[in-house]
Amino acid sequence: MGFLKEFNSLAHREFPGVLTIAEESTAWPMVSRPVHLGGLGFSFKWNMGWMHDNLVYISKEAIHRKYHHYDVTFSMIYAYTENFVLVVSHDEVVHGKRSLLDKRPGDLWQKFAGLRGFFGFMFGHPGKKLNYMGNELGQWNEWDCNRSLDWHLLSYPLHAQLHEYVKALNHLYKNEPALWSLDHEPGGFEWIDCNDSDNSVFSYLRFDEGRHDCLAFVTNFTPVPRRSYRIGVPMPGRYDEILNSDSELFGGSNLGNAGGVDAQQIPWHGRPYSLEVVCPPLATVIFKRRP
Length: 291
Hints:
Largest sheet: 6 strands, antiparallel
CATH topology of the largest domain: TIM Barrel
Radius of gyration: 19 Å
CATH class of the largest domain: Alpha Beta
Order of helices and strands: HEEHHEHEHEEEEEEEE
CATH architecture of the largest domain: Alpha-Beta Barrel
Low-confidence stretches: none
Distance between the termini: 49 Å
Mean pLDDT: 93
Strand content: 15-25%
């Protein structure tokens, strides 16, 4: 432990801005806390628990997911104990575990739709993001260190559209401080509803510093569209639909909210206002409150 503390202390002192990240899979405490506070001094720690729970969940048939609903919400119990990185790593797409796309149940359309929906949920969840190469292409083959990625898949529409969706997510992430400015502070995240196991729908809010911007995420992990689905929001106004993983641009069925919805003065989920939204199948929809 002494070596790790000394290494991190020197690295951060001599190279300001450097990141050291621990691939650490146990419950060892304070991995990403400063050395002078008793920690190991790493910048971040991989969230292996989140990865395991979510990959097991998305591998289930949709009809069974309601029985495993709280595997997905469990990560928020410990989300602020470390500076976490949400990781879908090389270890999970090798040795017979199958590629991220191939883990998904259902037909071809459902596999791609479900993967897009999962990526949307991942990008909204607190924690930095690390996705292993090839996941954004929708590779069928497991990763192999002795061969190239399957770039030829981009000549097929569903793979190219998945690639465009991941690109759109990355641009959104960079441009919306609510998705990263308070990643490691409780004030940046609130569940709207984490208990709708019957519908396998998760909804939550992300805030920036000062809570000026508000993003609402709704993820439907079943192939059944949820219409007239009501979620509580803290502020009035217009909520623009800024990204929908079910858009036809990304290979989806193009079910959505016609660009956005207006908050209604109907209290819901303990909040003074609410939105009545459409939840496309196997999709994540992201709303942003218009200033």
